[in-house]
Design brief:
The complex is a heterodimer of chains A (about 300) and B (about 350).
Chain A (H helix, E strand, L loop, with lengths): L26 H29 L3 H4 L14 H7 E2 L2 E2 L1 H33 L5 H10 L5 H15 L5 H26 L3 H8 L4 H30 L2 H6 L8 H8 L7 H21 L1 H10 L5
Antiparallel strand pairs in A: 1-2
Helix pairs in contact in A: 1-12, 3-12, 4-7, 4-9, 4-11, 7-9, 8-9, 9-13, 11-12
Chain B lengths: L3 E9 L5 E10 L4 E5 L6 H9 L6 E6 L2 E2 L10 E4 L11 H12 L3 H14 L15 H14 L4 E5 L7 H18 L2 E6 L2 H7 L2 E6 L2 E6 L1 H6 L4 H6 L6 E8 L2 E4 L4 E2 L11 E5 L4 E4 L7 E10 L4 E7 L2 E8 L10 E6 L5 E4 L8
Parallel strand pairs in B: 3-8, 3-9, 6-7, 7-8
Antiparallel strand pairs in B: 1-2, 1-4, 4-5, 9-10, 11-12, 11-14, 12-13, 14-20, 15-19, 16-17, 16-19, 17-18
Helix pairs in contact in B: 2-3, 2-4, 3-4
The chains are: A mainly alpha (about 300), B alpha+beta (about 350).
């Protein structure tokens, strides 16, 4: 049996596939599709809509029975209350600032650590590479709640309880495995030959990575960073266990803390939630192209 | 320009894979040397070790008189062309070509002169202001070749540069590379898994298998007398027929009665296999002179020739190359005649050429 020599050759030029015409259906089908999608959209969006409505209603409209959908007085008082309390900044505004610092720094750290690691795992023959990668992934298998008690005890020993640094470290630790795995997919897509060629042209391996591979990875890094940011921004369990004082708490436990006691100021809760949701929405919207590139890039063979 | 000496090369990866077991190569100055083998045979690793992109575990590499073991790729004065072209995507053709020269720090005027010269050699004039993504595969590969040329290196290393091109373009580029190498007279090491490329390009071919060199020789030597059963099965399309034979009465006799002239110095008491090229056999009418009985199993009509697969003494895969005018139906009883000279003979246990 001769060894086949043509197996690596692509077969002929790739023809341009136009999407096939819809085979059956027509009007009845599309009406059904639109109806189902509308129902789905209403179910998904109603809580969001209700949150936004509540945040701009006056208190008596918030508690009105039956609930008022359209006919209510618009006010921005709740939003004012989110940021300003009597005699200066509110506790909520401090927690928002904490969230920005903790989520931002931990995302940057995870990216700075994870991207070079992903590059190394993609490019080099590392001893027991698959086992190492599996181990890294396995740290994400269990829900955070499982490890929160031991982490709490450890943090108490080293004095990281109720510190922003403590949260930054734990979020970074949780985001690095994710960053490594997601970025490894992106690095695999960039042909190693760019670096080889650059090294033959007189650059060191690190310079080759920095000057040629890294710029090609920017969409992937953006997508990965957004996911890491959303995780850190939304994280609740660690935040509520590891922090207690108003100076350190991030927004999720702070907002949750508004509920409880004898009365609940739902207007304030809703306004705080809107403020909390906006940055992530805005950021995801800004990088949406990269997000789509990030989601589809790995699926296409080069 | 310089020759390349590879001595006792061995490459073992940290995960324990041995990519190159033991390779010795002596590549002459100005030679077009082809390394041929199936995927995973160690040919690319050997090339990358010569380039300095991989550090060999043991063994020495010399380019010219310089021992380059510890030199980084850039200081080895070589240029490499890759299967995926590896043109810098953010640079225009002109800048891609100038890039290695600017990295060297050459004066502007000389950079321009050399870029123009390479562009002229590879006929890149109209493409100079385009970025790689606006070039076709063939154009990208010409730019990649030109980028190797501008360096005026001591040697070219080619890592399956034509694999991603379609068949027609590949044939053109093959001619072009061969012509270019002849013109420049620069040493070239060319890695491929395509035997047609190897045969048509190489001054000499090294056939690699499992990290070892099976045979080094000119294309004709490799074709006529493969040094091992592996080479015999790898080179030629269809490959050599391997027919079990016994030595009797000073002749080689197969089970089906085919009689071949034995090469001199044949050992007696071993299991032997004769390598017979499909064109050294002939399908004849049954009972023709010097023919032995056989039966057609199938026929492949290729237009300019027919490959008959015949059953000969129980061996059902004997392939015979015949002109398209000679036609036999499947299952027809035919005669099989040997028309070639002395065949290559292999020992079944060592899988090597014995005579």
């Amino acid at each position: 049996m001769a060894v086949s020599v043509d197996e690596a050759v692509p077969t002929g030029p790739v023809r341009d596939h136009t999407p096939p015409a819809r085979r059956f259906g027509g009007r009845g089908r599309s009406v059904l599709e639109i109806a189902l999608l509308t129902v789905l959209a209403v179910v998904m969006l109603f809580p969001v809509l209700w949150m936004i409505e509540t945040s701009i209603k006056e208190n008596r409209d918030v508690y009105a029975i039956p609930a008022k959908f359209f006919d209510f007085t618009v006010t921005l008082d709740h939003f004012k209350d989110v940021f300003i309390a009597s005699g200066g900044r509110s506790a909520l505004s401090v927690s928002f600032l904490n969230s920005v610092v903790v989520a931002g720094v931990s995302t940057v750290l995870a990216t700075v650590l994870g991207v070079p690691a992903a590059w190394a795992y993609s490019r080099f023959a590392v001893k027991a590479k698959k086992d190492q990668l599996f181990f890294i992934l396995s740290t994400r298998f269990m829900p955070p709640v499982v490890v929160v008690i031991p982490i709490f005890l450890m943090y108490r020993q080293v004095g990281l309880i109720d510190t922003k640094l403590g949260l930054i470290l734990i979020y970074t630790a949780f985001n690095v495995p994710f960053t490594i795995w997601m970025m490894k997919g992106f690095v695999d897509e960039v042909p190693a030959e760019y670096e080889d060629a650059a090294m033959l042209d007189g650059y060191t391996r690190l310079q080759a990575f920095w000057r040629f591979t890294l710029p090609l990875l920017v969409p992937g890094i953006a997508a990965t960073a957004v996911f890491a940011l959303i995780f850190s921004w939304n994280e609740f369990v660690f935040a509520i266990f590891l922090t207690s004082s108003d100076d350190v708490r991030t927004a999720p436990p702070a907002i949750a803390g508004l509920i409880g006691g004898t009365t609940v100021d739902w207007g304030l809760v809703a306004a705080a939630s809107v403020v909390f949701a906006l940055p992530v929405l805005a950021f995801a919207y800004l990088v949406r192209k990269h997000l789509i590139a990030g989601v589809t890039l790995g699926a296409v063979r080069r | 320009m310089a020759g390349i000496e590879v001595t006792a090369l061995h490459k073992r990866y940290p995960d324990g894979t041995v990519a190159v077991d033991h390779v010795d190569l002596s590549i002459g100055d100005g030679e077009l040397f082809v390394m041929l083998g199936p995927s995973g045979c160690g040919k690319t690793t050997t090339l990358r070790a010569i380039a300095g992109l991989e550090r060999q575990t043991t063994g020495d590499i010399r380019i010219g008189d310089t021992l380059v073991n510890d030199l980084p790729p850039a200081e080895r004065d070589i240029a490499m062309v890759f299967q995926f072209y590896a043109l810098y995507p953010h640079l225009r053709t002109r800048d891609n070509l100038a890039f290695p020269l600017r990295a060297e720090g050459l004066p502007k005027a000389e950079v321009r002169e050399r870029v123009d010269e390479a562009a002229r050699l590879m006929r890149l004039g109209p493409l100079l202001d385009r970025r790689p993504r606006r070039l076709s595969g063939g154009e990208q590969q010409r730019v990649a070749l030109a980028r190797a040329l501008v360096r005026r290196p001591r040697a070219f290393l080619m890592d399956e540069p034509l694999t991603n091109l379609d068949a027609e373009l590949r044939a053109d580029m093959r001619t072009e590379i061969k012509h270019l190498q002849g013109e420049l007279g620069t040493t070239m090491v060319y890695v491929t898994h395509d035997q047609v490329e190897a045969m048509s390009l190489g001054h000499r071919i090294a056939i690699l298998n499992k990290g070892r060199v099976e045979q080094i020789g000119t294309p004709l030597e490799v074709y006529d007398r493969p040094a091992s059963l592996f080479c015999a099965a790898f080179i030629g399309s269809p490959p050599m027929n391997l027919i079990e034979v016994e030595v009797a009465d000073g002749k080689l006799r197969s089970k089906g009665g085919l009689v071949l002239t034995p090469p001199p110095g044949l050992p007696r008491d071993r299991c032997l296999v004769a390598g017979v090229r499909p064109e050294a056999l002939e399908v004849t009418e049954p009972g023709a002179e010097r023919s032995v009985p056989a039966r057609v199993v199938s026929a492949e009509w290729l237009g300019d020739e027919i490959i008959y697969v015949v059953d000969h003494g129980g061996q059902r895969d004997v392939r015979v190359r015949m002109p398209p005018t000679v036609r036999f139906a499947a299952d027809a009883p035919v005669g099989l005649r040997h028309t070639g000279g002395t065949p290559a003979v292999y020992d079944v246990s060592t899988e090597e050429l014995v005579a």
